[in-house]
Design a protein that fits this description.
Order of helices and strands: HEHHEHEHEHEHEHHEEHHHEEHEEEH
Radius of gyration: 21 Å
Strand content: 5-15%
Number of strands: 13
Shape: globular
Mean pLDDT: 94
Largest sheet: 7 strands, mixed
Amino acid sequence: MHFNPYLQDINSYQAGRPIEEVMREYGIAREDIIKLASNENPYGAAPEVLESLKENIHTANLYPDDSYYQLKSALAQKFNTESSNIIIGSGSDQIIEFCIHVCAETNREFKILQAGVTFAMYEIYAKLFGAKVLKTKSAAHDLEQFLEISKKEQPAIIFLCAPNNPLGECLESKEIEQFLGQISHDTLVVLDGAYQEYAAFKDESKALNPQRLLHKFQNMIYLGTFSKAYGLGGMRVGYGIASQEIIKMLHKVRPPFNITTLSLCAAFTALKYQDFTQQCIEKNFSEMRIYEDFFTQYNIGFIPSWTNFLTIKDSKIDSTQLCEWFLQKGIILRDLKSYGLNACRITVGTNEQNQKVLKLFKEFLDSMK
């Protein structure tokens, strides 16, 4: 058989190991496993969301309203924009694929630009279309490097992940706005705000205002998701906010019914209970300080984070050894060797989970002596 030749240059995305796999491979009971590898909200969704799913389970046999009117209207109200400026995706990563699809050209070299270390799916989706993937020398977002490469290479798409996954660092909104003002109108700038709820809570200067940016720049799209702060990772709902021209083009490649009926119900209900989401975010940063204090006390290098995870980056610790050691104890962390980094990403869990992790971390450090 003949396959797409571009697939030869693509490594599959490595998701955090599932609980079921750890149960099988290590013989650990489900209740003894803590998954802190995929940046899921450990508190789950609001109770009202779960109730709405129970009440609407009888609709599972029906296709959803493909206009997604109810959810788009709620998002339009939240962001002070129009429903016609919004597209819904199966996770925000599906909209990333849409963006690459509509910008790819066959009659000239197709280029995208991203940070040295950032969300892996930008590169994977781009390579599916034979794109040349340009990266800054800096692992984190250095906008001077972005600007220099952009002026020289004229990429079709620039990806800015704010905050950045898997590092956790975050650009300031004024920096992004200044950057957008210097980019060619022919380049689509994708602002990936998957962790924006966390960044905006921690530091107002990091908060992005999609409506304000949309008013000033017609060549950008803001991406958001219900998978992180809203606790709906398993429901797979994301959204994009952009000009009507961009949204119209994205809809040309969107498959019908790309969100389930129950996913729509969950996302719409979650938007009505923002207090629960804010409580989850508050707990996240309270618990993150416990990790930061521990790492500081034991002189362990880490990257300051505006997300719901912390990334350990310390030359004294081999990330693969660390993750494997924890895995044998039933704790799933995320090794970042696949990103070319000797680093480990830890999702901030509940207090009970975090206390167990730090107790084991002390044991790991003692074993290294």
